[in-house]
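retry 2 of 3: previous attempt timed out while embedding flavin-adenine dinucleotide. Reduced batch size to 1 and resubmitted. Inputs unchanged:
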Amino acid sequence: MMAPFEYHRPRHLEDALQILARNGRQIKILAGGTDLVISMKQGLFEPEVVLDVKGLRDLAFIRYQPGAGLSIGALATITQVATSDVLIRHFPVLAQAAATVSGPNLRNMGTVGGNLCLDTRCYWYNQSYSWRVSCGFCLKKDGTVCHVAPGGKLCWAVYSGDLAPALMTLRAELKIAGPRGERRVLIESFYVNEGRAKFDLRPDEILTEVFVPPASADCFGSYQKFRIRGSVDYPLAGVAVVAKKGPDGRIHDVRAALTAVNPAPQLVPGVNSVFGQQGAHADLMEEVVRLALRSARPLKTSASTMEYRRHMLAVMLRRALSALLGG
Ligand SMILES: Cc1cc2nc3c(=O)[nH]c(=O)nc-3n(C[C@H](O)[C@H](O)[C@H](O)COP(=O)(O)OP(=O)(O)OC[C@H]3O[C@@H](n4cnc5c(N)ncnc54)[C@H](O)[C@@H]3O)c2cc1C
Ligand code: SF4
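retry 2 succeeded.
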């Protein structure tokens, strides 16, 4: 059952920021609610105040101008991103990633901001209150031990959003509004690789916009996602890969990013330099797979083991790379 809370739905960003500033850590931002409401029902969040930002209609936009870049408001829905003609044409990896998020109803409700600020997930955490009582609470909520790594002090719960890896390959920046004005962070610096800390976002701040620089337009590539139920499910491993093609037909600026295998989505380091080397495509691809697996630490779920997720990560990455190389 959900604990009672005070509810606000402001129409202007300034009002939203004032409500945040007044309520410190006792407040939670609600956008589409497709993740937060479930977590509140499970007792994972018990905010005294809920700030519904769906009234901030000015933040529900997608704008693209060649030479100026792409801007997406935090309140744009996942459906808008998946079906936008501009994105399908100029930023296909992002539209593809959006089209794989959960199912149609949740894509209609879910927002870009909510997707990027998704809570990390773990078999021991995303459970009902009675389930968690019977197994013992964990470090992330009310307990003192991590059931995944009992000797450690860190939480390894996994970030499972689909948009972030695609946006990482496109060198996106996030705009964040707070009482001290607006700041911008590169998307890869926004994520903290720890299951509780999660983001570089203070309790009095709101994510307002995603900006993709003009140089990232017209990259080609794909988003590959491994999940149990094709119709509606979180990724168990997700891979975005993009590149540019030169006039000589050679690819350059190759970037790859992963999701669902760490507490943060991550760029795979060193991918572009692998493709700068001489060698058979198959060997270069295996080198990138090796780099990716070096950092991937997925958790066991009710439907998969860590080993299977790592194996499928490699399969997804090989698919994305061979599509890129025309194989
Ligand atoms: C069955 C099911 C399947 C799902 N499958 C997927 C999937 O395949 N891929 C995937 O990526 N997601 C999946 N999700 C999660 C979710 O539906 C989406 O990620 C959705 O985009 C979340 O957006 P929302 O607006 O509903 O977020 P909300 O639930 O409203 O919020 C999520 C979190 O973000 C914070 N937040 C929201 N907006 C902002 C903002 N502007 N600034 C700062 N913080 C903010 C909230 O406080 C909350 O902590 C699934 C959910 C369900 C229930
Ligand atoms: S990884 Fe995090 S959520 Fe999972 S059991 Fe450990 S502390 Fe809890």
